Amino acid sequence: MPDPALSTYAGLPGYLLLWVFALVAFGLFGYRVAHFVRLFLRARPEYRGGQWAQRLGFFVLHVLGQRRLFDEPLVGAVHFLIFWAFVFYSTSFFWNLLRGMVPVLPIPYADEVPWMTLPLEVLGALALVGVMVAAARRGFFAPPRLVRSLDATIILVLITVLLLSFLTSEGFRVLAGHSTSWMPVGVVLGGWFARLGMTPAASPLYFLSAWWVHMLVVLGFLAYLPYSKHLHLLAAPFSVFFSSPVMGTVPPPSEGAARREEFTWRELLNGLSCAECGRCDRACPAFNSGFPLSPREVVGFIRDLVRAPANPKSLVVVERSVVESPLASEIIPPAALWSCACCYACMERCPSLNEHVHLIVEMRRSLVSRGEVDDRLQAVLTNLSRYGNSMGQPARARARWTQDLGFTLKDARREAADYLWFVGDYASYDPRIQPATRAAARVFHRAGLDVAILYDEERNAGTDVRRVGEEGLFEMLREKNLQAMGKAQFRQVITTDPHTFHGLRNEYGLNSVRVLHHTELVDEMIAAGRLPLKRPIRVTATYHDPCYLGRANGIYEAPRRVLRALGVKLREMRRNRRRSYCCGAGGGRIWMEEVPGIKERPAENRVREAAELGVEMLVVACPKDYVMFQDALKTTGLEGKLVVKEVMELVDEATAPLEG
Amino acid sequence: MLNIMVLVKLVPDVVEELEIASDGRSLDPASVRLILNERDEHALEEALLLKERHGGTVTVVALDVPEVDDVLFTALAKGADRAVKISGVEAGLSTWAIAGALAKALTSSGLVPVDLILTGVQAIDDLDGQTGPIVARLLELPYVGMVCRVEVDVEAHKAVVIREYAGGVTGTFEVSLPAVLGIQSAEKPPRYVPVAKVRAAMKTQQLESVPVPGQGESSSVEILQMAKLEVTGGAVMLEGSPEEIAERIWDLLKERGLV
Amino acid sequence: MAGEIWVLVEQWRGRVSDVTYEVLALGREVSAATGASLQAVLLGSDVKDLLPTLGAADGVLVTEHPTLGEPVSEIWALALAQLVERHQPLVLLIPQTNVTMEIGSLLATRLRLPFVNFCRDIQVTDKRLVARCLLYGGKVEATVAPQTPAVLGVLPGVRPQEQGRAERTPTVTAISLDLPAEPPVRFKGYTEPPPGDVDITRENILVAVGRGIQRPENVALAEELAAALGGAVCGSRPVIDQGWLPPSRQVGTSGMIVKPQLYLALGISGAPEHVQGMKDAALIIAINTDPRAPIFSVAHYGAVVDALEVLPVLTEIARSRRRVA
Ligand SMILES: Cc1cc2nc3c(=O)[nH]c(=O)nc-3n(C[C@H](O)[C@H](O)[C@H](O)COP(=O)(O)OP(=O)(O)OC[C@H]3O[C@@H](n4cnc5c(N)ncnc54)[C@H](O)[C@@H]3O)c2cc1C
Ligand code: SF4
Ligand code: SF4
Questions:
Q1: Which ranges of C184-294 would DSSP assign to H, the alpha helix?
Q2: What residues of B are in contact with residue A380 (Cβ under 8 Å)?
Q3: DSSP bridge partners of B236
Q4: Was domain A240-369 assigned CATH 1.10.3470?
Q5: Is A476's Cβ below 8 Å from some Cβ in B?
Q6: What is the pLDDT of residues A367-401, one digit of tens each?
Q7: ipTM for the assembly
Q8: Are C205 and C167 found together in one domain?
Q9: CATH number of the domain where residue B139 is located
Q10: Pocket of ligand 2 (CB under 6 A)
Q11: Domain that includes residue C245, residue range
Q12: pTM confidence score
């Protein structure tokens, strides 16, 4: 076959043409990329170094392995193929470009090397099928929330052409008699070409045409890429690599962000990594319930912000009246931000490992620092700073639930104990959950556990306060709690509240202390034989994974083991473990005004899902879930058909001493 | 430009369980946590709204009592320009004494005249009078209470104020400035100020302190006794047939002048 | 103790307010205990028509003046100051409402007289005037003894108003005063609330319905009661969820926070989210069929009975008695 770089075209040598085209394409590409890089350099710094091994692991799993794409298996497979085809095709492209631009290099072209030819051909053909499937999905079976843009169509066409041009060039090679056993597709195509009456003599010309089409399309693709949504294929690997190594995080302390320069570089990067696939929206309880929030649009806004020229004066979140932005579409209404339950379902699903909650919390902070909080929330924040609880109850009433226990709980401020039980607001004050809290106390007592509580000196742990965007109040609560804890002697901390658990475990800097959720502790106690079973619980039940126990901390099995040990027959809901569906209480939502006109509250959706299994009982391991689901039973009319129980109520019942 | 003064008062927080002291005539100080009088919070908000509208300054003044610093720094964080503590008064439960001390200190320190003095229309411990009208009389300024909206005409040096009556009826009054207004509710609910801003105010801003010259006023109302009223442990149950219960409810409403 | 017992007549928009009769009834008791006569003090611009309604007093002091037409507290206090200085009464009782709120303080400061706020009862003990006052949002009662002469602000509801009503024309003493023609506070007019939209946070009387009301038709029964009592209907979230009442009527953490004088809770269990929205109401009466419903721990009065049975009876009582009154 002729060397495309050394052939001449209208008297011009191929390598010269390649230089010209490459310079243009790389120029366009570089210009755009430089804009982004400049922006990131100018953005607020955020440290995302360290934990390199883990980051590398993420890269392997989520970029090379495309793990989350397989949440939707068919598209996952298609994307996987296209991705790997992309890897080989881009390698081959750069290789050929280099070889073509510097023809003196003593190396063959990539497609002349058998171990490149084979994967290029096989992946190319499979990817072609994949592209067809993708096009059909886009055209005929688009899932909700997938964005169908012209942009996406252009990209699909470009990919098709570049795949086809390569494969045909292989066919022409075969036609010219250069077949090897590494060219399965080429051989087939070559056969077809021969049958179509193409002659081996003409094949070098055909080959050269196909070769150039391929190179030009790829160069065009390269130039177009940073201007399109397919930028995600460049940005997402960075997003993945620099994503937060653990789930459940919030951005580093700040006064919030409303303008482009106020976001951190990693937050801005979200905008470029988004493939507009809509997985986040499909997982989002707020979106599905009809709240005015779409996590995809939140990310999309950041993308617009990053792509906007020079210095847009736009405010992401604007005060009710003033609109400072030149583009109304660039504005995220505060109501969208307040709708988020900070359940991390979007983050758990995003194939690019985008961090929606970071964006939302960052923008909420900006609203809070301007005093823009709704009345109910304002009252709660005021209560929290004054009384240390969201209910506006006196601190002295905090431990009132212990009164009729029949034994006293140690006061951690006076006596040393093995375990410090951090009870939490809802478990302490809410009369509906107090029975479960007392059940927990009885179980600990029965197991002979040495526990103490902080009595009136405990305050709300602040996990949700932080997600509301009131960072200063969170810090104040944490300071006071740490002060109180400083007076106490203990070895481990336990709590029944996953929100509290998450805060204490990950956001309090209690590095030397082990923080346990009660289900973990009970699991250990049962395993150690410290809680002999007296009365098995013979029910069929399903278990709801609380967001802050499951997704945020990966604790899925301990509560299930406990339930099974009690004799409970467990049936799983479709959305279980990392796919668990939030009850809608988190992120401060439980404190906020009702959003008018929503379809179905997340908790209602969830209890219906549980009821559809035909189980008798929905078991929870979070006080807020208890309140939300209890309430949802009433509003869905499922009262009497399904009961909601806290794990500890069952443990208490199963282990209580038999009378007589 | 409008120079506004807001007089605020701290009152016992009734969320906490109040206890009567052993003398039987006052609250047990150990049971008392002070909190800003709710209406005063509205007065501050209205002042801040007026400042936003007309420019000028807002000066917040309170008696120096425990926990007053937090309240004043919060006011500064919300946008007040100056915060003044009046020291040297043991006012006890006498609004008359408090208002008297405020009036004296304001004159002697040159903090008045201002264009407008706002204060909460009343407080839950206003046993012998409300701050607003007393200060107004002592400074010989006009006073309007139950105000829920203020519009100032800076040029003409007067204000149009809306007063709230029962059943949603409002009355409009015109008052020459300077004047004292007793605020029932601000036009918007009092704003939220994030904790970080209050902490920043504590670091960067100063509270001023002004002593009361001479003897303070004392109340001519003697407290003989104090008793807790609330019967804890739930409702008084009404028994009987539906008819009897309806009668009893009707009597209750009548007793309280609700019908 | 010398000097008369005076009661300021609260007249607003051409009507003597009911609270005036309640205070007159109280004044009558004080007058009996001291042996002094009971005088009603009537201020206004053209108030002769109101005189016959004040028969419970021994006499009425009337001052008519163009600037006294509307209750501009500044001017009323000025007028009262002149009257008090001239006639030296022992006590002046002032009904405390939105209309007269600050008159006592203004007057007492002018004359350097003792003033007592929030009186829920007044007695004469050992020749001393003793008042019981509600402090700290109704949590504490203080018994106080002001020096006399004194001005006392009296809360509504001290006595049944019937006791202060009498069909008798009292002795009338007209007094003319010298009042400024161009006072510093000038009345400009009243504005009626916009019709149609009820703001439950501003209502004095709320009839609240919960799931115990059972059917949307029954909400109408509650509406009727509210109309008869002069209040409005509100509800718990499930009632709003069902669309039986609009969202603006929801009480609770995700609705409105209300502090009415009366909160009548019908078929509401008293979930914390609801209670946080209404616990500061001055009087809470709960009706629920479940004796263990948590609402009874925040209510002042309760009844374990079917709300649907009480509702119509109470409405009937309210309608008939009101008409009589
Ligand atoms: C995040 C969140 C926010 C919420 N916000 C609010 C809120 O703002 N406002 C609110 O109200 N709720 C709110 N709720 C719901 C709240 O938890 C309760 O579910 C709700 O208040 C219960 O309403 P209810 O008392 O009408 O119904 P139920 O709890 O079902 O009570 C009905 C009561 O009626 C009684 N009853 C039945 N028949 C009769 C009869 N014939 N006569 C008399 N009594 C009868 C029953 O004994 C029962 O006590 C919220 C819940 C959550 C989780
Ligand atoms: S955190 Fe949950 S509620 Fe918030 S945007 Fe993501 S999925 Fe939606
Ligand atoms: S943010 Fe992630 S999940 Fe959401 S649309 Fe973009 S790529 Fe998909």
A1: 216-229, 237-241, 272-275
A2: none
A3: C301
A4: no
A5: yes
A6: 998 888 888 899 899 999 999 999 888 999 999 99
A7: 0.91
A8: no
A9: 3.40.50.620
A10: A 283-286, 293, 295, 340-346, 356-357, 582
A11: 200-324
A12: 0.89
